[in-house]
């Protein structure tokens, strides 16, 4: 979870899944329905879901 420095009311969540089936399984899981859909989504004013692939692995900066 990240918060924007310029807009502190704006948060970004970045999640990584091994494939589309793993993403679908996450959305179908009990914890997603109980926490994500029931508690977090009602607090949001907008959602912007974007899907990306990762063509190659990049090591974290500073290592």
Description of the structure:
Helices cover 32% and strands 6% of the residues. It is mainly α. The protein has a domain at 16-44. The longest helix has 11 residues, at 30-40. The chain is flat.
List the helices and strands and how they pair.
Layout: E1 2-3, E2 11-12, H1 20-28, H2 30-40
Antiparallel strand pairs: 1-2
Write a concise keyword list for the protein shown above.
63 residues, mainly alpha, two-stranded antiparallel sheet, 2 helices
Arrangement of strands in the largest sheet: 1-2
Strand runs, count:
2
Percent helix, as a range, is 25-40%
Rg over C-alpha atoms, rounded to the nearest angstrom: 14 Å
| Element string (H = helix, E = strand) | EEHH
Weakly predicted, low-confidence segments: none
Sheet with the most strands, sense and barrel status: 2 strands, antiparallel
The whole-number mean of residue pLDDT values reads 86
Write down the overall geometry. Answer: flat
The helix count comes to: 2
In percent terms, what proportion of residues is strand?
A: 5-15%
């Amino acid at each position: 979870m990240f918060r924007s420095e310029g807009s502190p009311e704006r948060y970004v969540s970045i999640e990584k899944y091994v494939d589309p089936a793993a993403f679908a399984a996450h959305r179908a899981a009990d914890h997603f329905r109980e926490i994500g859909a029931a508690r977090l989504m009602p607090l949001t004013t907008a959602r912007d879901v974007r899907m990306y692939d990762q063509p190659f692995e990049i090591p974290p900066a500073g290592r």
